[in-house]
User: Which sequence fits this backbone?
């Protein structure tokens, strides 16, 4: 296969950046999209040029590092697929593929296709955990969890924090990420003690950096883990309820 | 500049800074709460639009029916309340809903602009966002401008030739006898229909009404409601201009 890549090159955070065209031939249809960039970079290095910087780690769709806007879609045209799991056979021979970094105020560009996603870490730090004492795991059956609830929590917990939801959202909203990170705890018994303070803290922190939801549903269709916007509705409900709750009765500071 | 993992982000604040303030102020500062308020005010506006349409369709029952209905609105609440008091109470709620809906929409739009200061340089390929959802701001502005004209036309009579207060039937016919005005009414009501289509679905998400049992019906409801309002509202200028005189 032969493809023409139209790649965003930007030397550093304050550079203006521009698209650059690269012709890549001898592409195997079985390559992943990241391997295409490996091939391109090797050729660039041999020619003495600067390789394209891009984020990657596990290359099996579980770490959330890879992040490319491919032909106007976060993670490319395939549903439920991270960039590292996207294969070249999904493209036509001779295709021109445009690749851009995520664009959001909260995700400043570091270089080329790498963006700084630490705004997500700020959201997690503000409440995406439970403060139960750790130690040896307790007997699992001590805390019964209905199967449906466990499944729903697991669906939310599938979030790999790649930021595709923010990239795909016309408002750069992080609702899907934040909702998944809140609700995988709020759905389970272990998450109940901090349920109301968690949702308020995490939503407030999210709103420092990200836009607001207009219910387009773009995030859901871009999510490599196909997390449902149903979780956003749950988060909205929890947030409003938390605001009006007499939280002293649940042992929490208002 | 090299970034180290875990370093504090230098992403800018896009929302107003949170300071200590009374509950109602801190509540309103949240974008999620603003969306909730937009949904609540949206429900009030949907109720109004429905009632408005049902009332106005009386024009097809004839002159006396609609003029009598208009007078009944003023008498509403009598004898417990003096004339027009209940009507003004409803108008107050309605105006408040409009103000909340518009101010919150404006502020959220500004937040969203700040959250995406640099647009994508290549064309986006939307996978889920509908025409309606992406044009909410446009349809909203069209409806607002139309509303101003509509009030000047049929409430204050400023732009209605030979306006007669209280004679709804006459004013309506006088207005729609002008073809361009009828066209403007039709266009504006199509915009309203598109706006309602996204809004009537979107409000369930903003309010957090989400239940697998009725989730598929949320979209059906939005289509049905938007279709009903559009059909009813468009029928009036269309048929009157076409010469239908009940
Ligand atoms: S590289 Fe880990 S998810 Fe793609």
Assistant:
């Amino acid at each position: 296969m032969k493809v023409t890549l139209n790649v965003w090159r930007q030397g550093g955070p304050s550079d203006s950046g521009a698209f650059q065209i690269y012709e890549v031939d001898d592409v195997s249809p079985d390559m992943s999209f990241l391997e295409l960039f490996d091939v391109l970079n090797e050729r660039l290095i041999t020619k003495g040029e600067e390789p394209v910087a891009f984020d990657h780690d596990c290359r099996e769709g579980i770490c959330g590092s890879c992040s490319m806007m491919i032909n106007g879609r976060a993670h490319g045209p395939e549903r439920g697929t991270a960039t590292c799991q996207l294969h070249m056979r999904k493209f036509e021979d001779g295709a021109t593929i445009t690749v851009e970094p995520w664009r959001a105020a909260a995700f400043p560009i570091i270089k080329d296709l790498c963006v700084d996603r630490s705004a997500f870490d700020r959201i997690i730090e503000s409440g995406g955990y439970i403060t139960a004492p750790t130690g040896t795991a307790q007997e699992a059956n001590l805390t019964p969890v209905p199967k449906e609830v466990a499944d729903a929590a697991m669906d939310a917990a599938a979030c790999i924090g790649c930021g595709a939801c923010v990239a795909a959202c016309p408002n750069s909203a992080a609702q899907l990420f934040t909702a998944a990170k809140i609700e995988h705890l709020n759905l389970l018994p272990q998450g109940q003690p901090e349920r109301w303070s968690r949702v308020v803290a995490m939503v407030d922190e999210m709103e420092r950096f990200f836009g607001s939801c207009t219910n387009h549903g773009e995030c859901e269709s871009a999510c490599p883990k196909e997390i449902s916007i149903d979780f956003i509705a749950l988060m909205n409900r929890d947030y409003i309820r938390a605001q009006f709750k007499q939280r002293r009765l649940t042992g929490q500071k208002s | 500049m090299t970034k180290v993992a875990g370093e504090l982000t230098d992403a800018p604040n896009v929302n107003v800074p949170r300071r200590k303030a009374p509950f109602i102020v801190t509540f309103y500062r949240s974008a999620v709460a603003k969306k909730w308020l937009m949904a609540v005010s949206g429900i009030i506006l949907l109720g109004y639009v429905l009632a408005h349409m049902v009332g106005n369709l009386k024009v097809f029952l004839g002159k006396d029916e609609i003029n009598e209905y208009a007078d009944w609105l003023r008498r509403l609440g009598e004898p417990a309340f003096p004339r027009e008091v209940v009507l003004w109470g409803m108008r107050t709620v309605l105006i408040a809903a409009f103000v909340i809906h518009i101010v919150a929409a404006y502020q959220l739009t500004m937040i969203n602009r700040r959250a995406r200061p640099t647009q994508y340089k290549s064309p986006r390929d939307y996978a889920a966002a509908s025409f309606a959802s992406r044009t909410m701001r446009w349809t909203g502005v069209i409806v607002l401008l139309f509303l101003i004209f509509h009030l000047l036309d049929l409430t204050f009579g400023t732009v209605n030739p030979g306006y007669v207060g209280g004679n709804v039937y006459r004013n309506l016919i006088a207005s729609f006898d002008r073809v361009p005005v009828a066209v403007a009414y039709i266009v504006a009501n199509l915009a309203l229909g598109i706006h309602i289509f996204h809004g009537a679905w979107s409000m369930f998400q903003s309010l957090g009404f989400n239940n697998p049992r009725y989730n598929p019906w949320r979209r059906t409801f939005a289509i049905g409601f938007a279709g009903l309002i559009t059909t009813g509202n468009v029928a009036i200028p269309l048929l009157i201009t076409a010469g239908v005189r009940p």
